[in-house]
Amino acid sequence: MKKLIYIISFTFLFGCSDPNNIKVIEKYADGSPKSVKVLFDNNDSNNYIIKNFYPDGTLDFEGKVSNNKFVEYRKAYFENGNPKEIVKLSDSTNLDYCCPDGFYKHYYKHGQLKETYFKKNGLFNGLAIKYDSLGNKIAEYQVTNDLKNGITKKFHDNGAIKSIKEYKNDTLVGTAYYFTESGDSLKRHGTNKGKIDFPIKYWKDNGNSLLGVYHNDNHYQVKWTWIDSVGNITKTEIADTVDGQFVTPDY
After folding, report:
1. What SUPFAM superfamilies is this protein classified in (predicted)?
2. Which ranges of the chain would DSSP assign to H, the alpha helix?
3. 185: Cα separation from own chain's centroid
4. Cβ-proximal residues to 4 (8 Å cutoff; 6+ apart), any chain
5. How far apart, in Å, are the Cα atoms of 127 and each of 103, 105, 143, 159, 165?
6. pLDDT by residue (tens digit) across 173-209?
7. What is the DSSP letter of 19?
8. Environment class of 35 (CB within 10 Å of its CB; exposed 0-12, middle 13-18, buried 19+)
9. E strand or H helix that includes residue 10
10. How confident is the model over 24-34, as a mean pLDDT?
11. What does the alpha-carbon distance between residue 236 and residue 251 come to, in Å, rounded to a whole number?
């Protein structure tokens, strides 16, 4: 019965290929194929598809080879048959190189897309996107040579933007913005040396807000301003540091 299963699997995987073009290059102890070459032309051994298998006959890996280098794509699979990693290669790459340049897709074991990104010169470059196990996009960010550079966005489960931040050489810069699931403003703050800094503003569900700004050049005090939903100032307060930190008041 086990031999029959292997025959069925082998026929399914290579049903459209000329049996004479399939070269078994490694076998398991029971004789089932572990690795094979599928030649495009039986007289040309330099161009082929290489396929590796799990012991049960499920496809483990597939890649297109030309002149002893991977070209066009590489694909890896989980034991349940779902894709694990698919790489659309930017250029030919050595057979033993783990991380060639190209466009990557990684998957969860149940088949849902997990993340996509680009590699250039062996480093992460370009737009990277991450998804949760249900397929919801959770983050997207720009990367230059493995460092965050540019706008980073995070998302709520409903697809609405959760936050927008800007990075330069992996350091948080500029103004960061945060939003509720309905798209309303939740918080906004400045940055200093990669850390949260003033000015900072908070919003409540009813539209009221609290604004905090430095009150002097030495940054020893903060001026807090309470603002109602129509923009009227209802209260102001000057606050000193508490153990070198500022405490956000109730609003």
Report:
1. Histone H3 K4-specific methyltransferase SET7/9 N-terminal domain
2. 2-14
3. 26
4. none
5. 10, 12, 6, 18, 15
6. 999 999 999 999 999 999 999 999 999 999 999 999 9
7. G
8. middle
9. helix 2-14
10. 97
11. 11
